[in-house]
Amino acid sequence: MKTVAASSSLFLYLLLSISLAGCTAVGTLNPDASPPTPALFPGDSTSAAACPVTEPVWAKPPEDPAVDGAPAFGYYFLNQDRSMWASAWWMEAEDYQLSAGEEGIKVGWFRPEGIPLEISGQRLDGEAPPLDAHVPCCYPTRFQSSGLIFPTQGCWQVAAKAGESELSFVIWVAP
Q1: Which of 40-49, 115-124, 162-171 shows the lowest per-residue confidence on average (mean pLDDT)?
Q2: What are phi and psi of 10, to 5 degrees?
Q3: Could you tell me if 54 and 171 are in contact, meaning their C-beta atoms sit under 8 angstroms apart?
Q4: Quick one: three-class SS letters along the chain?
Q5: Which residues lie below 8 Å from residue 55, measured CB to CB, with a gap of 6+?
Q6: What is the rounded distance in angstroms from the CA atom of residue 18 to the CA atom of residue 80?
Q7: Residue 137: inside a domain, yes or no?
Q8: How many domains does the chain have?
Q9: pLDDT (tens digit, 9 = 90+) per residue, 124-139?
């Protein structure tokens, strides 16, 4: 009986030794080496935590005859001189998530009066086709509507220009 137990123990020892042989490290550890710096945006990240989202401002937009009723406070992205505003209404909607897909999202803008609005966007954390921006022509006042379609989820930078005024912000787009 002792021989069977000894043989089993020897067998387990050999099996364990063989399996651990493949786990040895190559090279030596340098205790003075600093850890590698992680990339801010890895190749194809899907982590909202890695996206440096621009915080919108709770503000009252300018009065505009193209907008029904008196201006009301809401969330907006603003440039430094407040010549350009982009609504961030989805921040107020608790059950709404900004999502990628063909449906897109409506965004209202305030820009210098009557100046054409140009909108572009790119994904910061991976490869993706550019943002598809639909900007109707010829709004004569400061207000301008738009439709933005994000082709993929991820961290997106949206840039807008109207004449000399510019506005840029970063948002997270869910799947």
Answers
A1: 40-49
A2: -65, -40
A3: yes
A4: CHHHHHHHHHHHHHHHHHHHHCCCCCCCCCCCCCCCCCCCCCCCCCCHHHCCCCCCEEECCCCCCCCCCCCCCEEEEECCCCCCEEECHHHCCCCCCCECCCCCEEEEEECCCCCCCEEEEEECCCCCCCCEEECCCCCCCCEEEEEEECCCCEEEEEEEEECCEEEEEEEEEEC
A5: none
A6: 65
A7: yes
A8: 1
A9: 999 999 999 999 999 9
Cα end-to-end span (Å), the chain: 63
Q: Which residue, 108, 163, 165, 113, is CA-closest to 142?
A: 113
Q: What is the CATH number of the domain that holds 147?
A: 2.60.40.10
The CA distances from residue 117 to 5, 66, 71, 77, 141, in Å, are 83, 16, 21, 15, 12
Q: Read off the pLDDT band of 91 (50, 70, 90).
A: confident
Look up the domain containing 122 and give its range: 52-173
* φ, ψ for residue 18, nearest 5 deg: -65, -45
Residue 68 lies in a domain: yes
16: tokens are 């364990």
- What was the pLDDT predicted at 92? 84
